[in-house]
Amino acid sequence: MTTIPLQRLLGAALFILAAAFALGARAQDKLPEYRLGPGDSIRISVFQNPNLTLETRVSEDGTITYPLIGSVRIGGMTIARAEQTIAKALDEGNFIKRPQVSILSLNIRSSQVSVLGLVSRPGRFPLETFNVRVSEMIALAGGIAATGDDFAIVTGERAGKPYRKEIDIAAVFLSNKHDDDVTVAPGDVIYVHRAPVFYIYGEVQRPGSYRVERGMTMRQALVQGGGLTQRGTERSLRLHRRGASNQLEASNPGLDDPVRPNDVLHVGESLF
Q1: What are phi and psi of 207, to 5 degrees?
Q2: pLDDT for 84-137, tens place per residue?
Q3: Which residues, 6+ apart, have CB-to-CB distance to 123 below 8 Å?
Q4: Which pLDDT tens digit goes with each residue over 144-171?
Q5: Sign (positive/negative) of CA torsion 243, 245, 249, 251?
Q6: Which backbone phi and psi does 249 adopt, to 5 degrees?
Q7: Order of strands, edge to edge, in the sheet holding 264-269?
Q8: pLDDT tens digits for range 28-80
Q9: 43 in Cβ contact with 101 (< 8 Å)
Q10: Percent of the chain, pLDDT > 70?
């Protein structure tokens, strides 16, 4: 039995960790860098100058008032740029030479994400913190409505380019696809469409339209319609479905055949 040298094992482990870190870094790089805006709460500190530590809120015109230098406009700037702006003002005012300014974001109010479509409370919601996931934004909107789809469409911008992703919200939790639950960015729009439905009429107890559930079969669709009436028969079940050419096609489906969105099922009357 051969043994693998310890050095080789350590080297392989380090390679895997480095690759995972690089992938994570690239994924984060896709998000646009946050820019400060009205309502944001921040803490400003200057290295070795504790008396200049200040917690403040960005005003509606994008300015703050800071000791020694007065009013400073930082709205629309990245945190790094705002740090440089304050440091430059302190240096040019001969207050502190080459100051090291740090800004910590305490509460983000200016950036918002829109959640639209079939959710309980559609609207615009502020990003209170970083690293907020799509599922968390949907939760803020009251969750997906009863008639809403399991899928959410996220649109926005990443690295200056249009961004669009369709996320199976149910699969995030049912199938542990947590990587699909992406981090939202300021200005993103999350849209939940109407859930796909099928239609059933004829000799059933409750004709109407019903949601297409995952893996639903024709047999389950009949149950959803309340089952057959005394005059109905499974043998007379007819399926009307649009084909590849968008033409309506009729067929006699099997009871274990899958139901698809916009299927129309008709249960005929027994002849005997």
Answers
A1: -65, 150
A2: 999 999 999 999 999 999 999 887 766 789 999 999 999 999 876 678 999 999
A3: 114, 115, 141
A4: 999 999 999 999 988 778 999 999 999 9
A5: negative
A6: -120, 140
A7: 208-211, 197-202, 264-269, 232-242, 248-251
A8: 434 556 788 888 889 999 999 999 999 999 998 999 999 999 999 998 898 99
A9: no
A10: 86
> Which amino acid is located at 191 in the chain?
Y
Structural tokens at position 253:
């489906």
**Residue 211 tokens, joined:** 């949601």
Which structure tokens are listed for 256?
């274990």
3 state SS of 14: helix
Structure tokens at 233: 């028969």
Lookup result for tokens 């690239």: 26
Spatial neighbors of 256 by CB under 8 A, at least 6 apart, are: 217, 218, 219
Is 75:38 a contact under the CB 8 Å cutoff?
A: yes
